[in-house]
What does this fold into?
Amino acid sequence: MALIVWDETISVHIPHIDQQHQELIGWINNLSEAIDNGEGELAVERVLQKLIDYVAEHFAQEELLMISYDFPGLGKHRKEHNYFVQRLKEIQAEFRSGLPIGQNTYIFLTDWLICHIKGTDQKYSGFILKQSVEPEPDISAEDEARRAKIEAIREQLASGSYLISGKDVAGKILDVIKG
Ligand SMILES: [Fe+2]
It folds into this structure.
């Protein structure tokens, strides 16, 4: 199967998110190669699990970034993420039950990812980048502690040093919102 490559048309112009998207594409390509090269069920299973884990980590990072900027489209965006994770788990279950992973699966994974980045990720990144260049509105004193906390998370997210597992996201979201 022809492998996909990252290019500027799918850039979200947030460097560490672009880098994560490149890594995600890398894992999808690794899966394709493991199948094409006949590396065996164990190798395919290992790559598929890596892909699922990486997707969960990456989506968590994106969702936290959206929360920290109060992005209004978070709910809709999360639904898309959840759908993809669910499909990946179905693909894994089918593979474990003996069904091979074919070209249709690879096409689904690549099409979904490219459409999602172009149609959905570029919306939140545009929103964030616009906010980043606009002056901050006046804030009341009681908001300052919450803002400082959010700012610290933003900085860590921007540097790619804020690591969190998918299952911890809900708790972190509540922490940030409650302040
Ligand atoms: Fe996304």
Notes: The radius of gyration is 18 Å. The mean pLDDT is 85. Helices lie at 15-36, 41-68, 74-96, 103-133, 144-159, 169-178. The pocket of fe (ii) ion is lined by residues 62, 77, 81, 116, 120-121 (CB under 6 Å).
